[in-house]
Amino acid sequence: MPPEGTMPLELDPTWKTGIEWKLEMLMAFAFPQIHRLIDWAIPPVPLDTELQKVAPENERGLLTADKLFKVTLLSGEESVVYVHIEIQGQRDGAFESRMWTYNYRLCDRFGPNVISLGVLVDEDPNWRPGAYRYEFGGCLRVFQFPIFKLWDCVNPEELFEKTRNPFALMVAATQAAWRTRKDMEARGRERLRLVKYLYGKGIAKEDVRTLFRLIEWLTRLPEDLELKFREDLAGYERKEKPMTVDTLLSPYELMMREKGRQEGRQEGRQEACQNAVLDFLGARFGAVPEPVAQRVRSLTDESALRQASRLAATASGFEDFLARS
User: Fold this and answer.
1) Is 76:65 a contact under the CB 8 Å cutoff?
2) Neighbours of 152 (CB within 10 A)
3) Residue 131, beta-bridge partner list
């Protein structure tokens, strides 16, 4: 339970969404040696359903931070490889064992061409699980896997300036979220500073919107500070004018700005949550079908809307969202 006045971190599902959005950029940023082996002209094939099939019974339906892709190598022989990525947002003593379990189960299903990768976005810079080792009765098992550690990236903003890789700003936002977990006002200032990097960089408008949304999810703020951030961002936009603030605001923020803080407060929060769910589904999967939109609009209970918000970040598609909401 986070301290009163703070906001819980949504690291694992947000990073999972970023990887779904730009797998190639993640690999170039975090695992460049593997990135260079893959033929990116052939689109990767997501295999989340297959990943569910190999999950232990007690984890099925809970793979909120795992991804599996089928990719093609530049070399001709043994050209198909399965890339399993696990995002870990907190220290876990069972992490190495879990990586081993998924790797051997995936190898049993697809053959030996399986690469398992760990993306560690937790708070502890010294926690570096990169190998599973077990020995008993003269039998030795050793499994090593590459990891990307959040805190190894020292100047992510500078790296973004050089590469325009969105994961540099995701790293910066995650680091800021950890540093400010007990100071929401500082978090708001950090978010504004990071968002300013999006202005005038020649990034496609849709990519700007998606990256803005991911930064926002990584640096969640209480309502009063969320509104202050909008005011500060609007003031910055009036000076810079590289894009309108409406380009960045979701229906949630637009509605809150128009209604104000006093009028229709309860109804406004409900509609805000619904719009936030639809906005995040749209960022992940494209245009939201009408049946999905109707389902979200029918949710009025606060707990149901919180569940829908989690599903928007973890569902494998619109059908999965409908089935589980």
Assistant:
1) no
2) 12
3) 144
The length of the chain is 325
DSSP character at residue 288: P
Higher pLDDT, 304 or 19: 19
| Average of per-residue pLDDT across 122-143 | 94
pLDDT of 259 higher than 80: no
State the pTM of this model.
Answer: 0.73
The vertex-178 CA angle with 16 and 25, nearest 5°, equals 35
List residues bridging with 140 in a β-sheet.
135
Q: How confident is the model at residue 261 (pLDDT cuts 50, 70, 90)?
A: very low
Angle at 249 between CA 243 and CA 182, to 5 degrees: 115
* Cβ neighbours for 24, distance < 8 A, ≥ 6 positions apart: 35, 38, 40, 44
DSSP code for 33: H
Q: Among 231, 235, 234, 191, which residue's Cα sits nearest to residue 213?
A: 191
Phi-psi region of 221 (alpha: psi -120 to 50; beta: other; left: phi over 0): beta
Burial classification of residue 135, based on how many CB atoms lie within 10 Å of its CB (0-12 exposed, 13-18 middle, 19 or more buried)? exposed
What is the tens place of the pLDDT at every residue in 92-114?
Answer: 999 999 999 999 999 999 999 99
Query: What H or E segment, with its residue span, contains residue 166?
Result: helix 166-179
Cα separations in angstroms, 325 against 99, 298, 308, 321: 29, 11, 6, 6
Half-sphere exposure of 208 (CA within 13 A, CB side): 19
Q: Which of 131, 179, 242 is nearest to 9 (CA)?
A: 179
How far are the Cα atoms of 12, 27, 86, 147, 174 from residue 129, in angstroms, in the given order? Answer: 17, 19, 12, 8, 19
For residue 147, the Cα-to-chain-centroid distance in whole angstroms is: 17
Q: Which helix (H) or strand (E) holds 82?
A: strand 80-88
Q: Residue 138 corresponds to which tokens in the numbers above?
A: 């003269």
